[in-house]
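ok here's the first one, seq then struct tokens
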Amino acid sequence: MRGGLRHGSWFALGVVHDVRADVYPMVGRRSGVHNHRMHEVKLSDGIVTLSPLRLSDVEAHLAGEDELLVRWLNGGPGTYEGVAAYFRHCREQWDARGPLRAFGIRVGGDEVLAGTVDLRFAGGGLAPGQVNVAYGLYPSWRGRGLATRAVLLATAYAASEGGTEAVIQVEPGNPASAAVALRAGFAPGRQTRSEDGTPFDWYVRDLCVAVP
């Protein structure tokens, strides 16, 4: 991982079960997150827990990286130095309340790292109030509905931080990621192209409306 995750979703998996998280973050703007250090944010629905990425996650991330994940990453396969540098950047963004909020997706009592989900509150092509969501799971955790849960938790947090619309950008060749977006209540939107001409299908969701 040389430059971090793509601005779109890098999710790759088989079948995703339609499992929905109906519990909102344990901390947020309205529940006192400003009284906590930002990197201590922790969100859970009882199955999936989201907490900021940390340097101790580097080896687990590299161990979970496979060919499908590499396909949706920038710069090819990750290296320890590259991933560590990116995770340090993520921590700096949390500490500075920057536009990037990168979470590890954690499962079980031991909070084993199963993947990542990140929010970007600003960036190319985003209007004020829009928040980009990107996510991915490691191979052994796919097909369990965890990505849908993670997206629901992350977007609830985004709403608590002032986001009004969530955006998931998916390359047309990544239908599994599009399926997660639809299961998380997103609707198809416009198509855009990156600077190198890569097309991205947008999926959008109004964060002021609860997911049924």
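and now the second one, same deal
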Amino acid sequence: MSPPILVSFILFLSLPFLFLLSPQLLPTTHFPFFSSSSPDADDLSLFRRATTSTSTTRHLSTTTNQKPKIAFLFLTNSNLSFAPLWQKFFSSDPNRHLFNIYIHADPTSAVADPGGVFHGRFIPSKKTYRSSPTLISATRRLLANALLDDPLNQYFALFSQHCIPLFSLRFVYNYLFRNSLTNFSASQSYYRSFIEILSDEPNLYGRYLARGEDVMLPEVPYHHFRVGSQFFTLTRGHAKLVVRDQRLWRKFRLPSITNEPCYPEEHYFPTLLSMVDPNCCTGFTLTRVNWTGSWNGHPHLYTPEEVSPELVCELRDSNWSSYLHLFARKFSPECLVPLMDMADDVIFRDSEVGKYILHTKL
């Protein structure tokens, strides 16, 4: 056998050993993988139970003097730094007649239980990644758990660890239900979801094509593609709609093939609701955010030096003449001290302007 042929033969025989050793010879890089197959079995089971349960009708028909509740949903991958402020917010209803709390915490982040009203309110959670379908899944888990937990949950408000309240709980409750704490006898069709729905934002078409040309078709034509804040307040009917959906989810859970993030959590919810039930959506969010000086997709981060009574009043204001912002983001954890210092005298002392708008009709 000639030397060149011998060398080739030896190299051929060594290939299996190279494959076996390659994991040790080459550095390993881990990337988050988002499958395009059906949802995980446990999620699918949870969603099915949340949308098929008949407990709501039975419960409401056999009880009296029941008031609808707000489900406060916290989606976080770090400690709830503003838990003391939220604790003060919730303390006006010590018996929890008006609200429930649910927390989805990234299990790899070791988020601490803040105690108080937050104690024991963590739901089974999974790893989340920024600008990925995992944020949609986490939100759907929160909605599903809240739907199953209490049939009196009629509004579902989503927050991050960087969100703060701008009014008292009683003001927020009255603002949403517009019934001055009357019994739960009014028609649920009166309620509308507060979710931002925009159709003319820059880079919208680029995000639509992020998964590939025509990939979103036929379920999501471009003229139906929307964008909006991921922090919304949904009615119970819309919460069920989101948890029940599989048709649009199959498209939005596909990964981006471009180098630019496609932020699926900012598109899935407004697109779905604008396609299915636009008339029962206000088109705007109740959570104020400042995009001035934003970087890498992050909004302005408020620092302690910026926190003041004037800032709270400014954040409450809205371009919509008959609406207010009830919450705001994005605040650094260090803002807790100045916020707590003015909580009673400013944040939870509802303004006369707010009280006036509270009693105006939609």
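notes on #2: The mean pLDDT is 85. The longest strand covers residues 69-76.
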